[in-house]
Amino acid sequence: MAATLGTGSPCGACKFLRRKCTPDCIFAPYFCSEQGPARFASIHKVFGASNVSKLLHHVAVADRCEAVVSIAYEAQARIKDPVLGCVAHIFALQQQVQTTRVNKS
């Protein structure tokens, strides 16, 4: 499954890392050849390819897609706010809830 739909091109992660994509590539199902390199770049910058690979190996195959989505979200959040990451978004949502409650009362 390393070659995207049998085209022979590497997955987005392998393309970004400039390495040969193997048939058992852990990243191939989740990072397509076209959009994958840009998506993987932030993940690699924040967490590192090796750490993400190890993490995905510990996640059940059925849950890996959700794990990749979560990792990508957290990586983007960490790039925007290196200190708080996605917690900054949670704080903003909590503030909106408080404001709404005050305005409603």
Structure characterization notes:
There is one protein chain. This protein is an all-alpha fold. 58% of the residues lie in helices and 0% in strands. It has 5 helices and no strands. The protein has helices spanning 12-17, 36-46, 49-57, 64-80, 87-104. α2 crosses α4. It is elongated. It starts with 11 loop residues before the first helix and ends with a helix. Mean pLDDT is 89; it is low at 1-5.
Radius of gyration: 17 Å
What is the terminal separation in angstroms?
56 Å
Largest sheet: none
Number of H- or I-type helical stretches = 5
Shape: elongated
Low-confidence stretches: 1-5
Order of helices and strands: HHHHH
Mean pLDDT, rounded to whole units?
Answer: 89
Task: Note the beta-strand portion.
Answer: under 5%
Work out the helicity level: 55-70%
Find the count of extended strands (DSSP E, 2+ residues): 0
Structural class: mainly alpha
What is this structure's SSE topology?
Elements: H1 12-17, H2 36-46, H3 49-57, H4 64-80, H5 87-104
List keywords for this structure.
single chain, 105 residues, mainly alpha, 5 helices, 58% helix, elongated, disordered N terminus
Write a brief structural summary:
With 105 residues, this protein is mostly helical.
